[in-house]
Amino acid sequence: MLSFIARRFAVAIPTILILIVVSFVLMFAAPGGPFNAERPLPPQVLANIEAKYGLDQPYWKQIFDYVWNVVVHFDFGPSFKYKDRSVNDIIAQGFPVTLTYGFWSFVVAVIVGVTLGVVAAIRHNTWLDYLAVGISIGAQSLPNFVMAPMLVIVFTLWLGWLPGGGWNGGQLQYLVLPVIALSTSYMASIARITRSSMLEVLNSGFIRTARAKGLSDGRIILRHALKPAMLPVLSYLGPAFVLMVTGSVIVDSYFSTGGIGVYFVNAAFNRDYSVMMGITILMGALTILFNLIVDLLYAWIDPKIRY
Amino acid sequence: MTLKNTLKATTAAALVLLGTAVYAEGHGATHPVTGEPLAAEQVFTYSTIDEIPSIDPGLVEDVEGSAVVRDLFEGLLNQDPDGNPVPGVATGYEVSEDKMTYTFTLRDNAVWSDGTPVTAGDFVYAWQRAANPETASPYSWYIELMSIENAAAVIAGEKPVTELGVKAIDDKTLEVRITQPLPYFPQMVTHGTTFPVPQHVVEEFGNDWVTPEHFVGNGAYVLTERVLQERLVREKSPTYWDADNVLIDKVVMLIINDSTQALTRWQAGEIDKTAQGLPPGQYPSLVQEYPNEAIAVPSLCSYYYNMNMRDTAPEWAKDVRVRQALSLAIDRDIIVEDVLAAGQFPAYTFTPGATAGFEVPMVEAAGMTQDERNEKAKALLAEAGYGSDNPISLEILYNTSESHKSVAIAVSQMWKQTLGVETTLANMEWQTFLEERGNGNFDVSRAGWCGDYNEASTFLDLMNSSSGYNDAGYNNPEVDALLAESKTLADPSANYTKVEEIIAADVPIIPIYHYTENFMLNDAIKGWPFENVQQTWYSRELYKVAE
């Protein structure tokens, strides 16, 4: 087990390096640059700015300096667009926000999704099944950019119960709408995967044996069926968790939460190279980490899996 | 007086004071001048579309950032509600006979929010810092635009910053030397780039000096909270020299990326003012529903199409008659009234009529009906040898946006119907668009320009062949000469009129409309400078009346 983890970390380092290099190449290949604007800067002014940010250096040196600063100083550099803040500041401020609403969205999505899926599977082809499937298809087909403004119109404008946006340090009333908007489509996917995998498990031999032994339904489902049925759900949850905690541009821009999701898209449009790189690396590292965690959970759930 | 009597007197005085306080609390204060009852909570909340790149006066580059900088800092001069320069940190100034040396006298009671006096040296430091290549300010060109002695050489790193033409004669006297007389120079020092910065704080904290923990400013407000992409809060500064006349206690700026969302939150009463730019097409219904709160005021911005005037342009684009025909065939009234519908003004000249001291010249097209324009356009095109047997097909390049698209569709339809010109629309993501347009890879390209200061040259200088913003690639020595001459004239308006007439005849650009600012403003907020075409507003001039 330990050597497995060590091996995975050993592979992770070159993976991240490759990620950095590929992102850099793509970034430089895109037309324009961070300092192009409607009002082009006079050449001298542009030269001064490029010198300040090291953009006048050859590409290989920029990549090398960047990697060096990240690895040795853990410094992701200054933001080219938001000049009062460094990329470290931006991530330090925005990541806890997305982590908070992403985590709660994940919890809601898993609890509601798994419950719906299990209920649908054990009451297969009854009205409960149809209702659960109906809810999950509805939630899946309602994209969050439609959901978000609808929530605001209902809960803020009509009912006046919740603020229409903002974060204010993450108080509960600011958290509700972003969590609903972000969690619904994940919840729907989890419900569907759980349902089909549960159905498969319930039809397998060892469940029939358990039934033959005379175990109660509740015990069969909770002790014997749920754990193996969770395997396909788990492989979905790893990447889904990363996507949720690194935020959603829709949630961030509709609810003005100040999370990092909004930077990911804005940084690409603004050609804010350093912010784009910082967030890419963060997402890459989290993806690798959570894939590893999922693999370890696999072994815990399914004793047949050995590392 | 006995002890008992003293007690009595004190108690009575305390009761009177308490009574006054209770009265004030219960009945609310009134505005010292107008006598209007004021709201108990003097908080102004507004939204912007994007996070501000910087609130450091040396680095500030955008409109919203400038508004924050004007609250947190104060320059030599401010603008009054009509946009005229009025005393700020400087109580006044003197101009030398050759109009190239300005001597500003600073007020004695101007202090930084940490209590240190604001000195002429702070201005010298700030201006040198803005021009310093190491600061790499995107607005360092502004120092050059002000024609300050040695600005270009300092920015290029050829001379030390100490050679910049700005000097502290003593703590309260600032001398500025410029290289040519600029009638609008006083107007230029109302811009954030020229505001002082506290040397002692900047040097101690570096980039972090503009965080709430370290912030020191000399404006009517101090920075108290900043969460990037979420909010920026500033509160009344007790050390501001005119603090007694500041009514708004707290200003909250929220970043709301989506204009529809901002509108919903305005309707829910969460914000007092939305960012400029209501959701497309919504203004007419909003003005019906909220006649006093849906605002459209003229602004100093022009929307136009560049014609490609380079050698590499297609043959038809080189024929002035074709360019004139294309310009005439655009029905601006339809575009402003039906497509945009937010009070914009049809444009036949580049410079908006709202610009100070600018008399809109009567160009021929402006006085015609659209039928007459269409007839003339057809005749010109036929004369140039184009028509159904020799059709023109062209491409309009614009950056991806719903409203640019609607304008381009309307224009292409007009060209098709009147002139039989086939138009394809090409939209590009912003950065790609800028690169293509800058390199002249287009037939016709969309452009917008907002004045940096309230004077016609901020627009017309773009027509100079050497201007870096001359995307049309226009090169007319007569225009260059008129513009160069205008810099030395006491009253350059005749030159501006002439340049506009030449542009109208040559058609390097097709002016389409002049912008309005449109936004929602809670009618309890008073003091908004509607008359200021640059919408230069100061929170300290606003107040909230009781509902």
pLDDT averaged over residues of chain A? 87
Largest sheet of chain B: 6 strands, mixed
Rg of chain A, Å, rounded: 24 Å
Helical/strand content category of chain A: mainly alpha
What's the shape of chain A? flat
- Helical residue percent of chain B? 25-40%
The total count of helices of chain A amounts to 12
Widest β-sheet, arrangement of strands of chain B:
12-16-11-15-13-14
Topology:
The complex is a heterodimer of chains A (307) and B (547).
Chain A: H1 2-29, H2 43-52, H3 59-73, H4 87-122, H5 127-141, H6 144-158, H7 172-202, H8 205-213, H9 217-245, H10 249-255, H11 261-270, H12 273-301
Chain B: H1 3-27, E1 43-48, H2 63-72, E2 77-79, E3 85-87, E4 90-95, E5 101-106, H3 120-131, H4 140-145, H5 151-155, E6 166-170, E7 173-177, H6 185-188, H7 199-205, E8 221-227, E9 231-236, E10 250-255, H8 259-267, H9 283-289, E11 294-307, H10 320-328, H11 332-340, E12 345-346, H12 370-383, E13 393-399, H13 402-419, E14 422-428, H14 430-438, E15 444-450, H15 457-460, H16 477-486, H17 493-506, E16 509-520, E17 525-526, E18 543-544
Parallel strand pairs in B: 1-10, 13-14, 13-15
Antiparallel strand pairs in B: 2-3, 4-5, 5-7, 6-7, 8-9, 9-10, 11-15, 11-16, 12-16, 17-18
Helix pairs in contact in B: 10-12, 11-13, 16-17
